Fold:
Amino acid sequence: MKTLLYPAYERLEVTEVPDPQAGQGELLLRVSACGICGSELEAFRHRSPRRVPPLILGHEFCGEVVDTGRGAHNFKIGQRVVSHSVVGCGQCVRCRRGDVNLCARRQIFGMQRQGAFAELVTAPESCVVPWPDHLAAEAASLTEVLANGVHVANLVKRLDPRKVVVIGAGPIGLMAQQAVQALTGADVTVSDLIPERLEAATKLGAKHVINSKEENFQQAMLDWTDGEGADVVVDAVGSPATKQQSLPATRPGGATVWIGSHGNTVTLDTYDITLSERCVQGSYAATMAELQQSVDLLAAGKIDGLSWIKAFPLGEGVTAFNRMLAAEGDDIKGVLCP
Ligand SMILES: [Zn+2]
Ligand SMILES: [Zn+2]
Structure:
């Protein structure tokens, strides 16, 4: 099969590799579309030890069942499915609770198992859901990205947020914005440094945008919330600077959600947590129920997954990666279609 292979650090090539085979409980899928994730661009750029080549990357995908392994009975050949990025062990207390995203033995496509930048990929049938007929492949491939946003919205629903800020208008930020709008009804402000991304956020329903290159983020936040701070601030960048920004922008008693993973170590003013009872909430991937919730939202047309992506044939995978790495203008997200 043809694949976009990550053969060694700082290299990508379109090449042929042997077809994979569906193992016990697995489906063999012909990939229809697979999104390029920011985490993969990061891994490529910084030689991440979490993604060690040689590897086939790609964990945001949908495809058609072309074979079923032993013990896989829930899907038929020809059926179309959307996959989760996370494969839980299925045995542990977290998996049994439904939190496959927190499984200590979880596998991620394009990390511990081969990913979907390829014509074929195998996936356990426990980690896929049906792909509705009228949903375009490119949009269906964004289900996993949306599920990240749905997870954020579900984590903060208990606060009944009215004003939410999303820092970073990349794919995760734009999906978190849309999920929060759709599931909580809160007004959302989005901040970023790139005007084209802020335009996308506005088109997707943001009530207000902040260009933090030109405006003082903290001041703009206080102005928007009458000096109070937002009920929820979602840091979809995760750099030390945005983690520091996100806390004081949250109202006392509110929640700061860290989903971005652009940086790890940071110095914080912890009194912003203690003295104001802010809650810092981590968010990682999503549950299977949230994957289903996401595909339903996309199929119902409540989330726009198409207007801000760019599709490329698999053969142009290297070009697509390079465009996303340059991250200029309105190239917000690339999707590879084998
Ligand atoms: Zn991803
Ligand atoms: Zn588990």
Observations:
- The longest strand covers residues 26-35.
- The chain is about 30% helix and 25% strand.
- The mean pLDDT is 96.
